[in-house]
Amino acid sequence: MSSQTPPFYHAASNENLFGVSPKVTAALQDALTRLPSYPHPDAAPLREAIAAKLGIQASQVMVGSGSAELISLLVRTFCRPAQETSVLSLSPTYPLYRAEADALGIAYQEVPLDSAYQMDVDTLLAKVDKTTRLLFISNPNNPTGSYLNQVQLERLLLELPPHVTLVLDEAYAEYVRTPDYTSALPYLEKYQNLVVLRTFSKAYGLASLRIGYMVAQEPLLEKVLQVKQPYNVNQLAQVAAQAALEDEEFLSYTLEATAAGKQHLQQALDQLGIHYWPSEGNFILIDAGIQAEAIFEHLLRHGIRVRRTDDAYTLRITIGQKEHQDHLIQILQDMLAPDN
Ligand code: PMP
């Protein structure tokens, strides 16, 4: 084992640990000369760039200060504490759906994933009632890496009653490799109650700038506009996102490096006999069979921060550079199989 400890491995927030496009840093340098001006109020150039990429109209795109802001805006648009409204999602999933509902005093319902952390459309549909206004599905799902496949998505879209808006949070969609997954973007034309969320925080490497976007039909976005503040996305973020979108080469590099890193980590986990769930994201959920807290603390002492979950046995690890992952694997091996 090398005597040099690699720099801190921040494996807790699913950021892009392979960096950011050099085109982004160049665009930011240029934008720094215009700091005294307000940002573009409705982010028109960026929304047009996103729309052109997706083959839709800019009026079907809204940008937010991270997709987190858009989640908050959706809850504020569709749910009212004084009325009988509720938010529905899965469990375990991204905790912000519940946090936003809680913050506004809105009822939050959840449907557990099955024992293999897969989604079940029947159970989801059975949980929908007359109060349900929003159904959030993280697809792929954070923290499990599991996903709603095309057949399941189509069923949900067909069978969900129109008073429920289906929000497909596709924060990790760029990483997906399995052929039976589909983004919900192609279904937007047909369904008025569908929203797709995307972010620049993951594959595009812009987590620090806070920028994401939402795509839906115009009448739905007009409702959300009523609760959105002007200038919600700063100019540096707008400029960086546009440059990131144009650099397909960097995106491919990220996706390749992440896939290779995921394969490397999975092989090592197999060898160590550590259970993990197949993941379509840039992260892996593991269950080492012992209390996760002990592993978490041990890794932290060795310069690696992973993410704890609500489950006492599982931990989520963001795919990182090979040097970082090798260090992680070594520490896990020393801890869990010291006689090897
Ligand atoms: N959705 C999911 C499923 C996420 O995992 C995250 C970030 N961890 C977000 C949304 C929020 O991303 P951001 O606000 O950085 O766009």
From TrEMBL:
Molecular function in Gene Ontology: histidinol-phosphate transaminase activity
Signal sequence region: none
Sequence positions bearing N6-(pyridoxal phosphate)lysine: 202
Coiled coil feature spans: none
Domain Aminotransferase class I/classII large, residue spans: 12-330
Domain of life: Bacteria
Keywords: Amino-acid biosynthesis, Aminotransferase, Histidine biosynthesis, Pyridoxal phosphate, Transcription, Transcription regulation, Transferase
Family per similarity comment: Belongs to the class-II pyridoxal-phosphate-dependent aminotransferase family. Histidinol-phosphate aminotransferase subfamily.
Protein name: Histidinol-phosphate aminotransferase
Annotated source species: Pontibacter ruber
Gene: hisC
